[in-house]
Amino acid sequence: MTGVFEGQSALVTGGATGIGLACATHLARDGAAVVLAGRRADKLEEAAAGLRANGAAEVHTVVCDVTDEAAVEAACSVAAGVGRFTMVVANAGTGAASPIHLTPLEEWNSVMATNVTGAFLTIKHSAAHLARNGGGSIAAVSSIAGPLTHRYMTSYCVSKAALEMLVRQAADELGSVGIRANAVRPSLVPTDISVGLTSSPDVVQDYLDQIPVGRLGTVDDIASAVRFLLGPESSWITGQCISTDGGHTLRRGPNLTPLMEMVLGPNAHPH
Fold first, then answer.
1. Is the pTM of this model over 0.90?
2. Spatial separation of the C-alpha atoms in residues 148 and 253, rounded to whole Å
3. 8-state DSSP, 191
4. Catalytic hit among 85, 120, 152, 156
5. d(CA 7, CA 76)
6. pLDDT recorded at residue 2
7. What 3-state class would DSSP assign to 158?
8. What is the mean pLDDT of each run of 10 residues along the chain (271 residues)?
9. Residue 207 among the catalytic residues
10. In 176-266, beta strands by DSSP E
11. How crowded is residue 250: how many other Cβ atoms within 10 Å of its Cβ?
12. Domains in the chain, start-ordered, CATH in brackets?
């Protein structure tokens, strides 16, 4: 523990599990007061208890659906009330997989609402707090799906591409008040949200075939990159989307065709 973040607070959306919880863990190790935001109170309290048991000095929770503007505004106010609010992890996200011609509008709207609008609201309502505190840093969790096509994951890919432009816009606009904004791009990381992919050995092997270092990511791989982007070590980095993917973006996106054909048969393709 370095104590570099002592006296500062961080809001982590989607903070109860997976990458979000790992990010909160890394920030707490360096002295930050962390505010975990998520939709389920029981999961949030379980995560907070784990952090406290591992030595986190100050952990707070707030029930927050990032598609609800009032809830996001309230979560930012909580973070502003427990320390000098300087750090934001816009991690809350969701995924989906459907052929374009079978994608329900409700699925498209749900993915966009969480992955894009949720991040927008998080940045919107944290910006004034960070500016009043002399600036800060925002780190969003994107995906290799931002720059690489993933067949049958159109809504997810488009949402992450939009998130990356949102980050660039925020960096350009908010830099004048001392706020930096960046993103990380994970490849496949085993978490609750990725179980649909990690449960298929063929899909996992295809990912591994496209990753030069030959292994899947871990939540700590991603959290370490986020911690760097939030800290003073990256003070001259903004507007960047850093691939944290074992080199996956050097190659192609995953081949999900066999999985989709197994599930949908001939309906996987328009006819």
1. yes
2. 5
3. S
4. 156
5. 16
6. 76
7. helix
8. 91 98 98 98 98 96 98 98 98 97 98 98 98 98 98 98 98 98 98 94 97 98 98 98 98 95 92 88
9. no
10. 179-186, 241-244
11. 11
12. 8-260 (3.40.50.720)
